[in-house]
Amino acid sequence: MKENHFHQELARGGVAMGGFMQIGHAAVAEVFARAGLRWVMFDTEHGGIDLETGTDLIRAMSAWPCTPFVRLAINDSAWIARFLDAGVGGIVVPMVNCAEQARAAVDAAKYPPEGRRGFGYNRANNYGVDFDDYAANANGSIAVIVQIEHIEGVENIDQILDVEGIDGVFVGPYDLTGSMGIVGQMDHPRMADALRRIITACREHNVPAGLHVVQPQIERVKKAIEDGFRIIGMSLDNVMLYHATRSFVTETHRLVENLGVMEKKQ
Hints:
The chain is α/β, with parallel strands linked by helices and 266 residues long. Helices cover 49% and strands 15% of the residues. It has an eight-stranded parallel β-barrel with strand order 1-2-3-4-5-6-7-8, surrounded by nine helices.
């Protein structure tokens, strides 16, 4: 059973920093893993990544101490099992609004007696070569994270966290603001109150809280950590690519202007 670097970071009392992927290319997964992220989550809810592509991303990350995660498109036992069989070390289940939905996710991700996941030869257990080891350790190693992205989930957060087997809570900030009619207003007082409720409940249940900091701004990461979040989703590949490129282009244009290149040409 491979080490889960996500669990290791949290066990040390640190912050588990990772990133989201929507560009389904193995090179991006390698770059993210090599850059030092502790986990990389490929997004099958909003991106175009499917099971086969996701499996290639898992292979690409295998050389680095970085755990592959998947954000599922739906809370479905078949898809949870298929991605776990492919070798992900953690799942993020979207739009969990009640304890029943959280329990369904845990049941699908855990082998009996803790859950109902089916046994079989697959990539995760090296196609049967490491079947015994994987079967014995998977339940304790795989991270099951529920995503709270609706005000209904916030209101039911204590009941959700009462479900045994939840390893973390991840806030979906844009959907959460949308459910309250304040789309994208991250600093709105109602959003701040919802986040406080989630953090407080997670602290009381000893479950780490996570936040997706979509825009790559270190000030927002700092605030999230100070607020008590211990799982940080550091933007996503296409957003970081745009911001890095745009920043470099802007600085280059400024350099060209300062050097008077355009004036010399004239």
